Amino acid sequence: MKCPHCGKSEKTIKHGIRKTAKGTVQKYYCNGCNTHFSSSKRKYTQYPEHVILYALEQYNLGHPVKEVKTLTAKKYKYSPPVRTVYSWIKRYEDTLTFLRLRKKFDVHPDNVISTQIFHHLQVYPFKYHSLKMHLSAKKLPQLRRYMSWVERSLPDKIFLKGPRASSARVEDGRDLTPEEKDNIAPKLAELALTSKKGRESRHEAVERFFIRNDSKTICSELPVFIESKETDLVDIETPLTGHIDLIQERFGTIYIMDYKTNLKKPENHVSQLLLYKEALHNRTSISKDKIVPVVFNEHGYYELITIDRP
Questions:
Q1: Predicted model pTM
Q2: Three-state SS sequence of the chain
Q3: Mean pLDDT, the chain, integer
Q4: What are phi and psi of 246, to 5 degrees?
Q5: Are strands 122-129 and 35-38 parallel, antiparallel or unpaired?
Q6: Taking 90 as the threshold, does the pLDDT of residue 100 lie above it?
Q7: Where are the chain's structural domains?
Q8: Tens of pLDDT, residues 72-94
Q9: Cβ-count burial of 11 within 10 angstroms (0-12 exposed, 13-18 middle, 19+ buried)?
């Protein structure tokens, strides 16, 4: 969490919580400028934020505003007026950016998001947003072709044995480093955790929230692999596999988004990110300079960049 006073994130620590009528607010302390602040930056509203986010999520799934009112009343004790829902759409459209696309395109709840469950030692629900996939295909049709192939022909057996990208180590990744950048992803992750449902994990909440509410996020838990003959980054005899948390397309570039609950040392994830990039390049033939690996959570966002050495 960046300090709103000095702009530094490495100096901030959690400093207790505060209970309010709208829920629990995380408090922070900045050792850099010796100030306290909290995660609550919301304008006053009589509705808890998780209720607002639920209503907007139902709208983004394709439900009309009047139906959103009904669904929210069934889910919670609140039944917001239609005009209030419209005011929420206006207030959040800069953050939940799919709200703008939702106004332009017809979206139906029954087919807006497709899901295929893969049992690759554990359960991986591969999901993609149909509209956003088709929109991104105008610039990067290779990604849509690969996703369609995954649905039809993915060889499950190679995911049941062999090395995983998350545990492999790349020796020549020393010239790569995660660089912190300003991005809306931490804000979205914070809202995702606010909207977390029941036994839903943090990972599940973030993936669900991004696919439904962010205009650039195309899919989640995309399975990828590298054959031994396709890379010299690691020494492997059987295919190396992995599942990419989130895929975004921005201005013709693919962003591999890996969510980490603990991001104190983003440099520890360089090997995994680099192998994801290599795998996606090999599977789609998208140019490597059009694939940007990212590691993030609600407190920070880091892109993997090449550093020049003397």
A1: 0.85
A2: CCCCCCCCCCCEEEEEEEEECCEEEEEEEECCCCEEEECCCCCCCCCCHHHHHHHHHHHHCCCCHHHHHHHHHHHCCCCCCHHHHHHHHHHHCCCCCHHHHHHHCCCCCCCCEEEEEEEECEEEEEEEEHHHHHHHCCCCHHHHHHHHHHHHHCCHHHHCCCCECCCCCCHHHCCEEEEECCCCHHHHHHHHHHCCCCCCCHHHHHHHHHHHHCCCEEEEEEEEEECHHHCCCCCCCCCEEEEEEEEEEECCEEEEEEECCCCCCHHHHHHHHHHHHHHHHHHHCCCHHHEEEEEEECCEEEEEEECCCC
A3: 90
A4: -140, 145
A5: unpaired
A6: yes
A7: 1-41, 49-104, 114-306
A8: 999 998 999 999 999 999 999 99
A9: middle
Pairing of strands 23-30, 12-20: antiparallel
Of 291 and 162, the one with more pLDDT: 291
Amino acid 212 reads R
| Residue 24 scores a pLDDT above 90 | no
Residue 40 has pLDDT above 80, yes or no: no
Q: What is the pLDDT of residue 58?
A: 97
Q: For residue 49, is it left (φ>0), alpha (ψ between -120 and 50) or beta? A: alpha
Is the separation of the CB atoms in 159 and 266 below 8 Å?
A: no
- C-beta separation of 28 from 15 below 8 A: yes
